[in-house]
Here is the input.
Amino acid sequence: MSGSPAGYRTENLGIGALLTTAAFFCVALVGMLAKISGQYTSTGVLLLFQNAICLLVMIPVVLRGGRSSLRTDKIGLHILRAAAGTGCWYALFFAIMAIPLANATLLTYSAPLWMPLIAWAVTRQRVAAPTWLGAGVGFAGVILVLQPQDHGFGIPELSALAGALLLAVAMMSVRWLGATEPVARILFYYFLLSTVMTIPIAVIDWQPIPSVVWPGLIGLGVAQLFSQILIVVAYRYASAEKVGPFIYSVIVFSAVIDWIVWHHAPTAYMYVGMALVIGGGLIAVRAKTEVPQPDTVVTKAASGPRSSAG
Here is the structure.
């Protein structure tokens, strides 16, 4: 497509949607495996193995391309993405150990409600009225899901909401990186930087790893690897704003898993709340606002107020 930024494919929303849905099925599996494995070890250990296993897979892939495949002028954006992603996963893992998997997932994956607002914070572009409407509808759904339930709203729920903000930043960063960076480089730097970031957490939070948990830790890493590959490739076929609604498939997958594995049947409140969150997200991301261009946003996100895109 003439004039398209390097790294993009001709837009195909169907392929982008399918890849995104598959990616977030893998994310639902990550949540399930983390909740199971977390009964035997710490959150820090889960994070370390999640990233280190993926890094071990990516090292031979990037080595085949030589040193040139690792050269980047977007290291600040890679660091932003890794920090946001690591923080999101820590917040989610912390939450799912204390509240039902479906609730924690619903809160964390309200991220599309935040994406247009984060773009506004970075670019100062005007946010359309439908975006505010969608955010309001979505947050009404979040409150409906949480408040009628016995445990109310506490630290685990706040953690999951913090994860939503971090996830929105990570998702936008993937899109901006995809404008110029190949998939292998994006994934390598993400797993390398995330592994480095999680080592201190795992050391502080270290617990012995019983043999029963090893299959879960390996499965966690494999599911994470596939989720990241699929979402990066998906963003090459359609923008984060267009495929954003399909991340809601993770809520459905997680609710089904929660029902089957932990017998947490969705309540009527949760069905209505999920519908409001999904509907609000659809309104917000479909709002007729100008999508910020990657070079403009990368400059502001990775370099602060400086005008250089490098």
